[in-house]
Amino acid sequence: MPASPSQNSINFSRRQFLATAGALCLGVGLGIHPTTASAFDPQRLRQNMQRMYGQPGLAVLEEWFVLLQQLQGQDIQAQLRGVNDFFNRRIRWVDDIHVWGQEDFWATPLETMGKSQGDCEDYSIAKYITLKQLGVSSHYLRMIYVRARIGRSQITQAHMVLGYYSTPDAEPLVLDNIVPSISPASQRTDLDPLFSFNSDGLWAGGSSESRADPLARLSRWRSVIERMQTQGFI
């Protein structure tokens, strides 16, 4: 993650967090098109999960299929709660270096469910793809990179959450693995947003630090998309 931004850029980013109409779009038409219902292949997902992670991984995948059936057609609040709770309860937070032997690895939902472990990016990606599969448009969803202040010491660390925007200029609801309840962004004063992205574009604040890093990290997002294509999500 980039160095801590200035106070001015933090304030600018927070305004973007709460009202996306003012966000600066650094990239549109990224060529990233996650899950669509017509390309979704449950049988291929089952085969790949069995091959890669065996019966334990397959059991979690089957629970995920049941979740999709249960939430299909329900109102958006029920879908957000169901998806957020599913991954927060079934996935144990473990740092990438201990799961993948790498400092920063972005996993597909199949890999996250197969390991039953992941970090903040993995939670956010899995929730994003699941909501997309339920028919929620990417226009309403963004994965948001933040600096999170942890505990009484207020130590900051890089973190990612998923934001749901009911309209383009609405205050987002935050789906997080640190705080299990879904909260409006204005209540998450522990989070300083740096940049956000989805299938359609990339948004960042005014500082050069927050602009440089997200563009570099798009390669990890594209890698996730490519692996999902082979696994059966796309």
Explain the layout of strands and helices:
Elements: H1 7-18, E1 24-28, H2 42-71, H3 76-90, E2 92-93, H4 96-99, H5 109-115, E3 117-118, H6 120-133, E4 141-150, E5 155-164, E6 173-175, E7 183-184, E8 191-197, E9 201-204, H7 208-231
Parallel strand pairs: 2-3
Antiparallel strand pairs: 1-9, 4-5, 4-8, 5-6, 6-7, 8-9
Please describe the structure with a list of short key phrases separated by commas or semicolons:
234 residues, alpha+beta, seven-stranded antiparallel β-sheet
Describe this protein's structure.
The protein is of the alpha+beta class. The chain contains 7 helices and 9 strands. Strands 1-9-8-4-5-6-7 form a 7-stranded antiparallel sheet. A two-stranded parallel ribbon has the order 2-3. Strand 5 (155-164) and strand 6 (173-175) form a beta hairpin. The longest helix is centred in the first third of the chain and has 30 residues, at 42-71. It is globular and about 45 Å long. The two termini are 29 Å apart. Mean pLDDT is 84; it is low at 1-12, 20-24, 34-38 and 206-212.
